[in-house]
Amino acid sequence: MSVDRLRQLAHRDARPRKIKADAGTCPKCDSHYSADEMQRNLRVCPACGHHFPVTARERMEQLGEPGGYVELWPELRAADPLQFTDLKPYAERIADAEKSTGMGEAIVCAELEVRHQPAVAAVMDFTFMGCSMGAVVGEKFARACDYAAQKGLPLIVVAASGGARMQEGTLALMQMAKTVIALDALAEARVPVVVVLAHPTTGGVWASFASLGDVTYAEPGALIAFSGPRVIEETTREVLPEDFGRAEAQLRNGQVDDVVDRRELAERIGKVLHILRRPEMEGNGSTASPALQWAQGGAQKVKSMVGRIRPGSTDGEDA
Amino acid sequence: MSDRKSGGRFVRKVADKVRRTPEAPEDDLWESVQLARHAERPYTLDYINRLCSEFEEMHGDRLYGDDAALVAGFGRFHDRPVAFIGQQKGRDTNERTYRNFGMAGPEGYRKAMRVMEIANRLGIPVVTLIDTPGAFPGASAEERGQGGAISRSIQMMWRLDVPTVAVVIGEGSSGGALGLGVADRVLMLENSTYSVISPEGASAILWRDASKARQAAQAFKPTAANCYRWGVVDAVVPEPEGGAHTDHEQAAEILDQYLYRALTELSSIPAADRRRARRERFRKLGPLRDPEGGMGMAAGRETPPPG
Ligand SMILES: [Zn+2]
What we know:
heterodimer; A: 319 residues; alpha/beta; 2-enoyl-CoA Hydratase, Chain A, domain 1; 8-stranded mixed sheet; two-stranded antiparallel ribbon; 11 helices; globular; B: 307 residues; 14 helices; 8 strands; binds zinc ion
């Protein structure tokens, strides 16, 4: 089925999608908000700017045009290759997460438009088992890369994860390799990757695709680290500063391009995608680099410009 | 003795063991974990010094510093140049501290990438030896980009045009291990472990109790036999009877044979095909639920490791 057809279907299916909106109290400034206010404010406290967590589907609604995203591969589900049990069997944890979140897995992939810029988005959802990365997250992410590359669309990644999904053991670790390798499809297609780091982005997710964005934004206050503060304090007995690993500190450390308020995020992503867009991306298929486009399209224009500046001489500038 | 040296028959013995014990008993698993980090077990430099007739170690990442937890350099292996890179543990207290227990920081991974880049440019195969409880968890490592150093090391290994072999020689835990693990062939020593996290780390996080490491090891099943069955590694390298720590010379000799064979095989494959196979190899790892078959999902293969 074509994506256009999917898009039509998606529009027909009871749009706009109803998203569960919880009432809440800001942990930072104790302001109270109704469910509607929370959703309207993109789950950012208007009083102090605290960023609450956002589910993947709500995030799609925030980034995309109203009512317009087409979810990809929602049918993929986790297996239990180790028959793993810690305090509870993994199979049971998965079933609980599916029930409580209404999601199939911890990542949602979709095709959408962000401020009129078509893109593919892979958005992680912290409510589904801490958005740990197992085989399904790895596979959906890899498919999103292939799909975006094939269509010549940029990829937007919203990361939020506790790291690799331990219940899938060594195979979960391998998803780091799988996702990093998959990103190169976009490099070959010459389309950019924008990564947004939401709270928290840690462990194997930060040490794989989340740290490989071409443009990397972080949400205010997001913890971004390979090892969390507790593990570091226990291992090294270091006393860590209050803002250790937080987005603002990681901006100072040179690990992200900017800290962007969620209320400006769609605008910023749209802007950077517009700047990076090649003329060909509107039509079909050419993967000629912008440099080559300059060489091809620009030569004639340069000639006439130089002619205007120095009448009678269009060559021999370095003489 | 002679069959261990020749490798082949010994491998079949290991393979038989793999088939006979689908669920290794708890004691065996814990024994594996203990053997994988035995204090007398050969470490990266113990192997390199035996595998290479000459070895020149490189130091520093040219950005910040030199990381003693990860060694990298060029050696002469069967009269050809090969880049060797691996985490290095220490044997006594001083050396352990100096080597930071084999936990590399960003400088380590960047040194590794520097050596990989040279190897790739000069057409020299890359061999990595994995032996780490994980990448270093420290504030300074985070500030200097531990996550990005590991992800870029993974990315660089995947992009290399030259043949690559990774060997888990002891303890392969977490992203710190995988940072050196993306290769055309991944081998694992018989008594080594390869896991998403150390048993102690898992115990603290999943059981919320530091004393459940044994139980965690049982749940993760991080042995060579299981990793082979999952398709995570391509071959299990046998160890001298009782474990590699009993005879460093022989352990290195067996590894020598496996490396030589892997590099010879890989060198005959065109670079583009090798990279395609490398991508496919990692792409297919990670079973999904069969929509018909419920949760119980057996991964991997039935055949014994290639001998
Ligand atoms: Zn507030």
